[in-house]
Amino acid sequence: MSSDRLTIFYTGATGYIGGSVLQRILKHPRASTFDITVLVRDAKKAKMLESKFGLKVVQGSLEDTDKLTEESENAHIVIHTADCDHEPAMKAILAGLKKRHEKLGDKPILIHTSGAAVLMDESRGRFASDKVVSDLDIAALGALPPSAPHHVVDLLAISADTEGYALSYLIFPTLIFGTASGPLYDAGIAKKYSIAIPWMADAFLKRGRAGVVGTGANIWANVHIDDTAEFYYLLFDAILTDPSKLGHGREGYYFVEADEQSGYDISKAIGEALVALGRADDAEPTELTPEERVQMFGSEYLVTLLWSNARCRADRGRKTLDWKPKYGTKDLLDSIPHEVEVVLKKQLAAENQS
Asked: What parts of the sequence cross the membrane (predicted)?
């Protein structure tokens, strides 16, 4: 790219993934040449991002489609790490990229965050699937139905590439774990913790014992938050330096996977943490009743999601980006006692305030 300044529009900067990725990009050797605009809803966080991190901020949300279109039109790269199921937001972003292409003739770049739930099945903890999908398997990925989680929005991003007005790269994180750290987290701008494991910890603390759906035999791939941020960084850098080696559009699926674990593995680790904290007498998970499932997870869809199989291989990132994750399942399980303790402290604080 020959331009002296690189314009970037960024969504999700205050999120768990988005914060980690943004602060990694801010350490890029060419960061002083980046003009980054972030979409932020919270006024206090917006001011901190401007004053402490030198970013341009547009205050708003994904509901502000006019802002999404305008800022996307003004950016050569859009990095979208916010809600991967927000169809109107994606349409607004693509409208801006198309306007830019029609006006300037260049092909703007979209880096879109989806999720490995696109692979989920109906296991409900009853069995471990032997199906493992590589992100180099174009036929298998092309056969994913539009009804798969997140995939309606994925297909919109791919269509922009197919129509020729943008280059689309789709990133599919698996189960992300670990406590995020760094300046955005120290400042209280971004969220430190993931969703799934704290959610399960909260439910099992209230239950007084860990639980499983089925036998917890289902398997999900996993990845540490730091390895996830590094993956985004390597892809971003490759787009700047050597994009010819990268697949995009229908060949632009990038799974982010380091290892895998069963649903039982996570529940048992939470159970052991409950015992260590004096919140349960037995670490062994017991099967959740249908009533408990709905009470804990809110809907049968989320039950199916959390206890599905989603097995994949990040072959594209390992091959083309030389991505080498540092963490695996042992690190995930080792991180759970801290996550459970954090959730317990929040529960106790809420009880004291009530």
From this structure: none
Question: How many angstroms separate the CA atoms of 36 and 56, rounded?
Answer: 6
Q: Is the confidence at residue 143, as pLDDT, over 80? A: yes
Nearest to 91 by CA among 11, 153, 4, 142: 153
pLDDT digits (tens, 9 = 90+) for 42-52: 999 999 999 99
Token pair 């590094």: residue: 230
The kind and range of the H/E element at 271 are: helix 263-276
Q: Which domain holds residue 16?
A: 6-123+130-191+222-256
Together in a domain, 333 and 306:
yes
- Report which DSSP code applies to 106: -
As a whole number of Å, the CA-based R_g of the chain is 21
Integer angstrom CA distances of residue 290 from 58, 177, 262, 269, 301: 44, 27, 20, 22, 13
Helix-helix angle 329-353:196-207, to 10 degrees = 60
Q: Please report, to the nearest 10 degrees, the dihedral formed by the alpha carbons of residues 187, 189, 190, 193 taken in order.
A: 60
Q: Is the pLDDT of residue 1 over 70?
A: no
Ordered strands of the 167-173 beta sheet: 56-59, 34-40, 6-11, 77-80, 109-113, 167-173, 253-256
Buried b (16+ CB within 10 A) or exposed e, 251-277: bbbbbbbbbbbbbbbbbbbbbbbbbee
Confidence at residue 176, expressed as pLDDT on a 0 to 100 scale: 98
In a domain, 251, yes or no: yes
My answer on whether 167 and 278 are in the same domain is no
